[in-house]
Design brief:
The complex is a heterodimer. Chain A is mainly α. Helix content of chain A is about 55%, strand content about 0%. Chain A has 4 helices and no strands. Chain A has helices at about 5-15, 35-50, 55-60, 65-75. The N and C termini of chain A lie close together (about 10 Å). The longest helix of chain B is centred in the last third of the chain and has 23 residues, at about 235-255. In chain B, strands 6-5-7-8-2-17 form a 6-stranded mixed β-sheet, sandwiched between helices. A 5-stranded mixed β-sheet of chain B has the order 1-9-16-15-14, with helices on both faces. The chains are: A mainly alpha, B alpha/beta. At the A-B interface, helix 2 of A face helix 1, helix 5 and helix 6 of B.
């Protein structure tokens, strides 16, 4: 798993974000459209790309993109 | 694992009836705090657009009755020739007697007729189809009428963003008959009751009868308002269940039938929302041209009526022989939802004499 590709996938999954706006330190709650719909599309992307199906609470427990990356990596 | 095959039984026609009242997602802008951008996201991602809402004097029984009348008329079958009635609903007119009995009385069917309700939601059409095939195969019935309908719009709280814009109302009637040369039909069914809390109406049954307390509104962590008498849905749990279980189930069904996904003409999935249908299609690696989903944006998620609704809305020309490309089609149905419960089948659908949808006429 590569963090750079992962960040790109997050960006594409979360609608309405400009390219390069998601970095390792991005805090999800600070994104303007961080809601259950965003979590749904993110769940789907991570399942399709990595075969890891996360629960909503697991995604919500990750504060930053880096912590989500670590969580997914631990489950691949 | 309930997995069955049936010989020479066929679905021979289907009609879906929706109420006249159309509600569009744009009318729900207040529900989303006036956020037009949010409405656009829901339209784009989930495919929310329009849904059909029954007025308070129309029930699923009424919608299904009108569907039956069109179906019997078009197929030229008398109600007395029906000897089995299966009514799938979770919004019956009464807790007793069953909608199936009420419909039997309204149609004036012969008393030599088995009639029962099936208390399932989004998986119910496939389950009742399996029951219909079963009672024809065991010789109990020759001709079974399958009704599937709900008025879920009445169960959702208008201030619950997880459900209010999603569900619509509809009723359908489908005929199943013995038919020489119909070939083999294949079914697989499953249940996971551990997920029963992720889609539930907590109050109104024997466990928690209606009371002043059950009618009290509460606000959940996401700011949605509902009472215990409303339908609660944990959207992310249901989504995860669907993308995890359903693609595997459909693959297992095809394997059981010795069929390839390439020989299947259409995968008619429960119209939960466009995102769900697309994502199951993606995981099956099936082109979206073979996974109809347009009826969702016209009717909403109409529970057990969604598969017959999708057939009538999107595949009427193809399956009723107006597009003269094939005399029969290989079609997979897959329903999944409350229970949690799921059922899938692979059928050979002949050229149908009747496949249509109509608007309810008072």
């Amino acid at each position: 798993m590569q963090i750079k590709i992962f960040l790109q996938q997050l960006e594409e999954s979360l609608e309405g974000l400009d390219s390069g706006t998601v970095s390792e330190t991005t805090v999800f709650k600070e994104l303007k459209e961080w809601d259950s719909l965003a979590i749904l599309t993110l769940t789907d992307t991570i399942d399709l790309e990595y075969g890891v199906l996360l629960k909503k609470a697991e995604i919500e427990s990750c504060e930053t993109a880096q912590s989500l990356f670590d969580l997914v990596q631990s489950k691949v | 694992m309930p997995a069955n095959q049936f010989l020479d039984i066929s679905l021979t026609g289907s009609v879906t009836v929706v109420p006249p009242n159309v509600r569009s997602i744009e009318e729900d802008v207040d529900l989303f705090g006036g956020n037009i951008r949010q409405i656009e996201r829901l339209k784009k991602t989930l495919g929310l657009n329009e849904r059909r809402i029954a007025s308070s004097n129309i029930t699923s029984l009424d919608l299904c009755e009108q569907a039956v009348q069109v179906l019997l008329d078009q197929l030229n079958i008398k109600s007395s020739d029906v000897d089995g009635i299966l009514f799938v609903t979770q919004t019956p007119d009464h807790s007793q007697p069953s909608n199936a009995s009420l419909l039997h009385g309204r149609l004036g069917c012969d008393t030599n007729c088995a009639a029962l309700d099936v208390g399932l939601g989004c998986s119910g059409f496939v389950y009742a189809l399996w029951l219909a095939y079963s009672i024809i195969a065991n010789g109990s019935s020759q001709r079974v009428l399958l009704l599937a309908g709900d008025t879920l719009s009445r169960l959702v709280h208008p201030k619950d963003r997880a459900t209010a814009s999603l569900f619509g109302d509809a009723g359908s009637a489908t005929m199943i008959e013995k038919r020489e040369g119909a070939g083999v039909s294949w079914f697989r069914l499953g249940t996971d009751g551990r997920g029963s809390n992720s889609l539930i109406v907590p109050a109104g049954g024997a466990r928690l009868p209606l009371s002043q307390e059950t009618a009290e509104e509460y606000t959940d962590d996401d700011g949605n308002i509902r009472t215990k008498e409303n339908l609660f849905m944990d959207g992310s749990e249901v989504f995860n269940f669907s993308i995890e279980v359903i693609p595997q189930e459909i693959k297992a069904l095809l394997e059981y039938a010795g069929a390839s996904k390439d020989t299947v003409d259409y995968f008619v999935l429960h119209q939960a929302n466009r995102y769900m249908v697309h994502n199951i299609g993606k995981r099956l690696k099936v082109g979206l041209d073979r996974c109809p989903v347009d009826s969702f944006g016209a009717f909403g998620n109409v529970s057990s009526a969604s598969i017959p609704g999708a057939l009538a809305y999107e595949l009427a020309d193809q399956l009723s022989g107006k597009c003269k490309n094939k005399s029969s089609h290989q079609v997979v149905f897959s329903g999944f939802g409350v229970g949690l419960s799921w059922g899938s089948c692979l059928l050979t659908v002949p050229e149908l004499d009747c496949l249509e949808w109509r608007v309810y006429e008072a």
